[in-house]
Write a structure and sequence with these properties.
Number of strands of chain A: 21
Strand content of chain B: 5-15%
Largest sheet of chain B: 2 strands, antiparallel
Distance between the termini of chain A: 55 Å
Number of helices of chain B: 4
Shape of chain A: globular
Structural class of chain A: alpha+beta
Shape of chain B: elongated
Oligomer: heterodimer
Distance between the termini of chain B: 32 Å
């Protein structure tokens, strides 16, 4: 990319003849030779720097030739002109230019500070965002030959219709049988491995701790080219079989450091996960992360421990492979596809994608859109600095005329002005990169979990991005003013005076203001749409009464299924009684799962005579669940304590399940089957729909049945309704639980309102960031308009003074100035609205309840910007009223 | 004796091209110049100088694909024209004459 951009720059700058291509070829050859030494991106920067130097050389040569005019001979064919002596002269004059620029900026500190800060804001914002994008999407993965590592997934069309599988239909994982087949037979892959993540409770002398545990097949580490820091990885024998793996464990470096003293030998020691002891056989190197795709959330790839696995049932295994030498992704995909008839003909197909791409899935679009927003902010900052520079150059007209009179060529003056811009850009890069250094960790902390952002900070790549952004700023904001300022010949300067320059400066500033306002409109519309969408999202009824409701989610693990179940129910009842005894608690309900905390089970419901069935979520709850949660009863009755003991199965169903299966009639008394062999389940009541994972999800059909120990569901979740505020109650609830059941691992204990709000944290982050950029852009645009109006009023001072002396009314003059600039602002806003209409479609996937062309947002942004423009125009225009004709017309 | 006087850098470029012979591609010539002078040679200065030497008729080039190496692109192979050789000889004579007169001056003082 960077090389292509550099080539474009060179083609534009070099004379268009056959030599140009060979110069490009020379540079490319040198780049190729350098790249053979590795570290491609360093050489990319080298290439762009060399191209920039070459382009600047030829541009200055061309400008120099033009300023001499056609009657003057071309550069004298003297060998001394371009020799080393000339190079020294060039360096000296460059230092002279730099000294002059430092003096100029030191004189006008207000201008310098505002220009540097404006640019720094743009550079800082875009560098911070680039740092995040680079870590998450661009940087090669830290494995051996990362380009050869691929993720293997399946596309299963049928899953689109299944409630809790819908999000994964095009990235379904592998079945253990598929993994076993590919491992033994797929020659297109030199290695294949599977892994996934589970939660396990670490038990021991210390209080129980919930850990993130990776399960993986034996070949994983070899495939990635990672060597354990100590000990070894699992062998194929240790993977075990369908009865379970051998209890061995490999620790992450972070876990080893936090749980074992420095000197202690960990290999051979034992740790207890759940009720099983595992022997430590290895420790991984520091910083080892491996992400898995999980619908609805972003995995940061961190695991405390790794245990062997690969044989557990169903589609639970995230598969990665290493392409065999010479095999392409397409060939590997075709070979895997060829095994399909043996597994499940015609129902699915395999998808092989580079692991880097798989890691960035779902993250690329929002991150790139945010990077685009910072790019717009950068452009706005450039436009602002361009107007500031034009204002400053207007004051320096006499100095420029004097320099021209003393023989300075156009190229010489351009170079002087560009040196000043480069100095300005350099200062802005320093401040901007510092800003990014502070801003990036804050952004990462505020935002949702993203992979590979553990030690986020400014590194060489981010610095290069900052410098590149600074260079772009200098070119955009400095080149045009410099060209205009140096464009006049001495003759024309003397003939037309400074008014001609002021007129052109004013034209350029007007153009910059129109552009700034247009881009600001685009950002404000983006921010406005996301804000409106977020409001709509927050207005969505979760289906439960969250006020005064607290959620408690415990983690129970029992080795023996029969005794474990009995023990869990006894413990659940004890905890329920303890919670009820806390003052202020009005109701406590027990269930296997709770909305917004745990992922519910999905099941197939069969109506009488139906073979195919339909999918529904399946919740097992206590009899007072709906009352305590505030889920309204629409018809029939709720579950009772007697239903749990009764021999006949009953269910309360959600409104959407009733609508889907018994459209237009009452489902009460109707029956369905969860399993054709089981007795039928009677519908006894219909309740309102509930959102289960996030407010952004659609409501799914649900069947609620008594929590009676069938299907192995444990009473681990408690919802507590109270007359006191949940925040006050939480410490007492925690004490009550731990006093009754010491060693209980509390995974979640939080007010329900916070859990519901947290489910929209990604949307909130996106909205806050975009709106933040948009507000910054609006402030910059406001400053831009203020500056242009003030300068125009100042440049028309004499004319206004004459008109006032001739009797023109002050109000009329102010109105004229406002009208003139308001037209300009109107043009910018109109252009912005048109651009926003086109670009807001990119946000369509992130909007809830509104369209990308939401009229409320567009009208509010337009009116808001017009208001901003009016204020920033009116304030300086009012200065006309302070003009005294006699003072203005007195000779300077 | 030719009418053209060569600058120091132009002389260096012509000498480097002569020395590199059949392998006088831009990369090699610029590298030779850097080795000779012991300092980096700017690409801009180099390409401007070869253009000027071409305009003066002292240097010429053909665009070829370098053989026997892994290079894949077309590149310019430079060669010095007879006029270039003559100019270099003049420069040498001029320098020798100057050196002789310098010896004379130094000897007298």
């Amino acid at each position: 990319m960077i090389v292509r951009l550099s080539n474009c720059l060179l083609r534009a700058a070099l004379p268009s003849d056959e030599a140009t291509e060979t110069i490009l070829n020379d540079l490319s050859e040198e780049l190729r030779m350098r790249r053979e030494g590795g570290r491609g991106w360093v050489h990319g920067i080298w290439y762009s720097w060399e191209s920039l130097k070459l382009a600047a050389h030829f541009t200055l040569l061309r400008l120099d030739g033009r300023s001499r005019g056609p009657s003057r001979p071309a550069p004298a064919p003297s060998g001394n002109r371009r020799g080393t002596g000339d190079q020294r002269m060039g360096l000296e004059s460059w230092i002279q230019d730099l000294r002059f620029a430092v003096r100029t900026f030191a004189r006008d500190r207000v201008f310098t500070a505002s220009a540097v800060l404006t640019l720094a804001l743009g550079i800082g914002g875009s560098t911070a965002m680039f740092t995040v994008v680079d870590r998450v999407l661009l940087r090669p993965l830290p494995y051996e030959e990362p380009d050869r590592i691929v993720a293997i997934r399946q596309i299963i069309e049928r899953w689109k219709e299944i409630a809790n599988l819908r999000d994964s239909w095009d990235r379904a994982r592998l079945h253990p049988d598929q993994f076993a087949l590919f491992r033994d037979e797929a020659t297109s892959l030199s290695a294949i491995a599977v892994h996934n993540q589970v939660k396990r409770v670490l038990r021991g002398e210390a209080p129980p701790e919930l850990l993130s545990v990776g399960r993986a097949s034996s070949g994983l580490l070899d495939l990635l080219g990672v060597v354990p820091a100590r000990g070894r990885w699992f062998t194929r024998e240790e993977e075990g079989d369908k009865n379970g793996p051998v209890p061995v464990v490999v620790l992450s470096d972070e876990f080893k450091r936090s749980h074992f003293p420095e000197a202690q030998e960990v290999l051979g020691t034992s740790i207890v996960l759940g009720d099983q002891a595992y022997t430590v056989i290895g420790v991984l190197p520091s910083g080892f992360h491996l992400r898995e795709f999980a619908p609805g959330q972003v995995d940061d790839g961190h695991r405390d421990l790794w245990i062997p696995g690969g044989h557990e049932c169903c589609y639970k295994w995230e598969a990665i492979g290493r392409l065999a030498p010479g095999v392409t992704i397409k060939q590997a995909e075709a070979q895997l596809q060829s095994y399909l008839p043996e597994i499940a003909p015609g129902t699915r197909r395999f998808r092989v994608i580079p692991l880097r791409q798989a890691e960035g899935e779902k993250l690329a679009t929002p991150l790139i859109l945010l990077l685009g927003a910072t790019g717009l902010l950068l452009l706005i900052a450039c436009g602002n600095v361009a107007t500031l520079l034009m204002g400053q150059l207007a004051h320096r007209e006499h100095e420029l005329a004097a320099r021209t009179a003393l023989g300075a060529s156009r190229a010489r003056i351009t170079r002087q002005l560009m040196t000043e811009c480069a100095l300005l850009g350099g200062m802005a890069v320093l401040v901007g990169v510092g800003l990014a250094h502070t801003l990036t960790p804050v952004m990462v902390r505020l935002g949702p979990t993203l992979p590979r952002l553990d030690d986020v900070g400014i590194d060489v790549r981010a610095l290069a991005a900052g410098i590149l952004a600074g260079g772009a700023c200098v070119l955009i904001s400095g080149l045009v003013p410099a060209m205009i300022a140096s464009g006049d010949s001495l003759h024309s300067r003397l003939q037309r005076g400074s008014r001609s320059f002021l007129r052109r400066a004013s034209r350029l500033s007007s153009f910059a203001v129109v552009l700034e306002l247009a881009l600001t409109t685009v950002l404000l519309v983006g921010g406005g749409l996301l804000t409106r969408s977020f409001e709509e999202l927050m207005d969505i009824d979760p289906g439960i009464e969250t006020e005064g409701l607290t959620a408690l989610f415990t983690r129970l693990e029992f080795a023996d299924a029969e005794d474990g179940l009995h023990e869990a129910f006894r413990k659940g009842e004890e905890i329920r009684l303890a919670l009820e005894s806390v003052p202020g608690v009005t109701a406590v309900t027990v269930s296997a799962d709770l909305p917004f905390i745990s992922k519910p089970w999905s099941t197939t419901i069969f109506l009488p005579g139906e073979v195919r069935g339909s999918t529904s979520l399946f919740w097992q709850v206590d009899h007072d669940y709906h009352t305590a949660m505030g889920i309204p009863l629409l018809s029939g009755r709720l579950l009772t304590a007697a239903d749990r003991e009764a021999s006949a199965s009953v269910a309360v169903i959600s409104e959407s399940l009733a609508r889907a299966n018994w459209p237009g009639r009452s489902p009460l008394g109707e029956t369905f089957w969860l399993n054709p062999e089981d007795p039928p389940v009677s519908v006894i009541g219909v309740v309102g729909d509930v959102r289960h994972e996030s407010l952004a999800d659609r409501t799914e059909p649900v069947a609620y049945m008594p929590l009676d120990g069938r299907w192995g569901r444990l009473p681990r979740a408690f919802a507590i309704r109270s007359s006191r505020r949940p925040e006050e109650l939480i410490p007492e609830l925690r004490r009550a639980v731990l006093a009754t059941a010491p060693g209980t691992l509390i995974e979640v204990l939080a007010p329900y309102e916070r859990l519901v709000a947290r489910s929209a944290s990604v949307e909130r982050f996106r909205m806050v960031l975009t709106t933040g950029f948009a507000v910054m852009a609006a402030i910059l645009a406001g400053i831009g308009i203020l500056g242009v109006t003030a300068r125009t009023v100042a440049s028309h001072r004499r004319e206004l003074g004459i008109r006032m002396a001739l009797g023109a009314r002050e109000q009329r003059l102010v109105w004229e100035a406002v009208r003139r600039h308001l037209r300009l602002a109107g043009a910018g806003i109109l252009l912005g609205v048109l651009l926003a209409l086109g670009s807001s479609r990119l946000l369509a996937g992130f909007l809830f309840g509104i369209t990308p062309a939401d009229p409320v947002t567009f009208v509010s942004v337009t009116l808001g910007e017009l208001g901003l423009a009016l204020v920033t125009i009116y304030v300086p225009a009012r200065r006309i009223a302070a003009l005294e004709p006699a003072t203005v017309l007195r000779p300077e | 004796m030719t009418d053209l006087q060569l600058g120091q850098f132009e002389q260096a470029v012509l000498i480097a091209v002569l020395r590199e012979g059949a392998a006088a591609f831009a990369l090699e010539v610029r590298r030779a110049l850097e080795v000779d002078s012991g300092r980096p040679v700017s690409r801009g200065a180099f390409y401007t100088t070869v253009e000027r030497l071409k305009r003066k008729g002292l240097l010429t080039w053909e665009t070829v694909r370098p053989e026997g190496e892994s290079r894949a692109t077309m590149q310019r192979r430079f060669s010095v024209t007879p006029a270039g050789l003559a100019a270099l000889r003049d420069a040498k004579r001029f320098l020798e004459a100057r050196c002789a007169s310098l010896e004379q001056v130094l000897g007298e003082s």
